[in-house]
Amino acid sequence: MGDLVQFIEAAKGAGASDEFLVELLKQRGWPEKDIYQAFAVRYEKLAGMPVPSRGSGGEAARDAFAYLLSFATLGTWTIALGSLAFTFINLWFPDPVSQANSFYRSTAYNVSGQLASMIVAFPIYAWVLRWIGREIEAHPEKSRSGVRKWLSYLALFAAASCVIGDLITFLEYFIRGELTTRFALKVLVVLVIAGGVFWFYLTSLREDGSDEES
Hints:
By secondary structure, the protein is an all-alpha fold. The chain folds into two domains: 2-47; 57-213, no CATH class. It has helices at residues 2-13, 18-27, 32-47, 57-92, 100-138, 146-176, 181-213.
C-alpha cells in the first residue's frame, strides 16, 4: 500500500488526474478498493483529517432492528388495545345467546392477557420511536433511508388493509340488515385504531418528503 500511495503522489505531482490514475492502476491489476484506499490516505494527509464515513453495514443492521422492533411492538399493542375494547363492548352489550358464567370467566382471562401485552409492548414501542427520533436528529440523512421508508409503507399497507376490510364488513352487515350497536362499536374501534396508525405514518413520510424538497 505504501508503494501505491507514493506512486499516486508522484503521478499527481506530474499532473496526472485522479480518473487517469484509477484506470491505469486497474489495468495493472490493482483492486479498485485498494486504489481508492490509497487515494484516501493521500487526501487525508493533505486535509489533515480522516475521510468522513457515512455509516457502516452494522449501523444499517441496527437501524433495521429498531424499525422492525417498532413495527412488531406496534402490532402487539394495537391488537391488544382493539381486543380489550372488543371485550368491554361484549360486556356492555352482551349477546343474549352467550352463556353468562363462561362469558364472565373468559372476560377476566382475556383482559389480563390484553393488559399484559399493552403494558409490555407500548413502552417498548414509545422508547424505540424516541430512540429513532434522536438518531434522525443527529443524522438527518437517516430519515430518507430505505429501511425506514419500506417499513413505514408496510405499516401504511397494514393499516389501510384493516380500514378497507373494516368498512367492507360494516357495509356487508348493513346491507343484510344485521347491523347492531355491538357490531357498529367494534367497527368504530378498528377504524379509529387503524386510521390513527395510518395517519401517524403518513404524516411521518410527508415530513420526510418535505425535508428532501427543502
